[in-house]
Amino acid sequence: MTNQAANPWEVPASGPSAALARQTGSHVPRIESARLVLRAPRLEDFPAYAAILMSNRARHMGGPFSRRDAWLDFTQYIAGWQLRGAGMWAAEHRETGAVAGFFSAGMEYGDHEHELGYLLADRFEGQGLAAEAIAAVRDFALSALELPSLVSYVDPGNSRSARAAERTGASRDSDAEAAFDAPVLVFRHALPNRSGMEAST
Fold first, then answer.
1. Who's near 32: CB < 8 A, 6+ residues apart?
2. Distance between CA atoms of 35 and 32, rounded to whole angstroms?
3. Rounded Cα distance, 42 and 189, in Å
4. How many other CB atoms sit within 10 Å of the CB of residue 118?
5. Which of 18, 102, 149, 194 is the most exposed place for a label (fewest CB within 10 A)?
6. Which residues contact 48 (CB under 8 A, 6 or more apart)?
7. pLDDT digits 0-9 by tens, 146-198
8. Residues facing residue 171 across a β-bridge
9. Residue ranges for the chain with pLDDT beneath 50
10. Are 60 and 157 in contact (CB under 8 A)?
11. pLDDT of residue 4
């Protein structure tokens, strides 16, 4: 457990600034799937985000991260909503109310295209939740947001992440992979013929 007194930037705001934070977050689109609600990330979600990035689960993306680097990653993806109109969602498990993971349709430094990124907490693995959220984010990003393209960048050693992309119909793009100096798998997402997406803004 992190000592919040030692990390005051992780303590939720209060008073008018808290109200403004809630109002700002209310503009992030909410997406609902069968078992998940994808909503605006909140400051209280950071410990769950940090737990993933500071663990061995982040080994395929340069981790484990320090808490500082996890914080910088968390805040840059949230900033994407204001800067580009696309960013990260926290995925809340309907049945338990717990944060099951984080999913994004944003761009970070070095990306060539909008990236559909996904992080799942270990206790929610093996239930098909990643594929469910990936499909919901894909549909929303390509239809409602009308992003020009959407890919997932996957480390060649991360077979679980690659399978999640494949289960949602994404296909490898060797031309996009060749544009990178380091080895990376690029899975390109496209809208299916029919979408069961439900979303509200």
1. 38, 136, 198, 199
2. 8
3. 27
4. 21
5. 194
6. 90, 99, 121
7. 999 999 999 999 999 999 999 999 999 999 999 999 999 999 999 987 544 44
8. 188
9. 1-2, 195-201
10. yes
11. 52
CA distances in angstroms from 114 to 77, 98, 174, 180, 196, listed in the order given: 12, 27, 17, 15, 22
**Cα-to-chain-centroid distance, residue 124:** 15
Tokens of 189: 């997402």
Could you tell me which of 91, 103, 174, 173 has the C-alpha nearest to residue 134? 103
**Of 132, 176, 138, which Cα lies nearest the Cα of 154?**
176
- Total number of residues shown for the chain: 201
Closest C-alpha to 103, from 63, 148, 139 = 139
Read off the pTM: 0.91
Q: In this structure, what DSSP letter does residue 91 have?
A: E
Closest by CA to 129, choosing from 137, 120, 138, 142, is 120
For residues 17 and 34, is the Cβ–Cβ distance under 8 A? no
Cis amide bond preceding 8, omega within 30: no
Tell me the residue type at 17. S
Rounded Cα–Cα distance for residues 120 and 49 (Å): 9
Handedness of CA 90, 92, 93, 96 (dihedral sign): positive
Instruction: Please give the pLDDT value at position 193.
Output: 74
Q: Bridge-partner residues for 109, per DSSP?
A: none
